[in-house]
Amino acid sequence: MQIFPKTPKFWQITLILGVGVFAISMSAIFIRLTLEITGFHGVGFSLFLSASRLIIATFMLLPIWRGVRQTSISPKAFYYAGIAGLCLAFHIAFWISSLSFTSITAATTLVTTNPIWIAILSRFWFQEKLRKLTILGIVIALLGGIAIALGGMQGESVSSQPLLGDILALIGAWFVSFYLLLGRESQRQGLSTSHYITIAYTIAAIALFPFPFFFGFGYLGYPLSVYFYVLLMAVFSQVIGHTTINWAVRWMSPVLVSLIILFEPVGSSILGYFVFGELPSSIVILGAIIILVGVAISIIGERKKA
Questions:
Q1: Which residues lie below 8 Å from residue 41, measured CB to CB, with a gap of 6+?
Q2: Average pLDDT taken over every residue of the chain
């Protein structure tokens, strides 16, 4: 079973990926709405949101499991898919937790620095040398991250512990970088996109399921509106958003796909302003711009290499 065209054209990849990025951009809004409804801010409730989102997505993909069981593919493909699922679990857990402590702009900008980390990982994993332009972009983006951290330390009305939130978002970026590269390798080894996401999302859901209990949070007793927003996260941000990205890396370089994902912090910040009136400090906005410039320079360097 293939979810998307077998041999897509460039405009099809761009269009589908654009829809996916918009779907992912709404994730921060849904998360922040649940935080306002419940008043919970911390790791425990964030883990509930992370696990619930993946559990719902997994149930939506249950019909595909029959095809997965009948697939005769290299064991490496399943190995990569399983490890990617664990990276996805950590990515979502760290990133959702970051939104309890820092602004939407800071969290979404830092978590989308993955083109930098993908370039670095490719250097060691695939023995691809980094161009000087790529290294320059990495340095600039890191300076932008420092600016965001300093802006958060000066205090933002929308965040409680911005430095902690920024660190959590950055860790989330590291895990999503592994997730994208492992997903590409799994599909290169023969798994279709639908089979890959079914395995990865299921592994991630199983891995996260028990963790809310360790922090005193269960899965029942929340307002119905919370479950509604979790459902929207599962449908839009996970099944539509993440799946389109996983499909796109099958046809495009993960670094180039990450360039388009950079529209996520822009979309999330715009939505955050209109929904919550959230306007981060000027230093955070400047840091976000610096990061985007640095990542763009890195990607230009990668494209010249290609």
A1: 35, 100, 101, 160
A2: 84
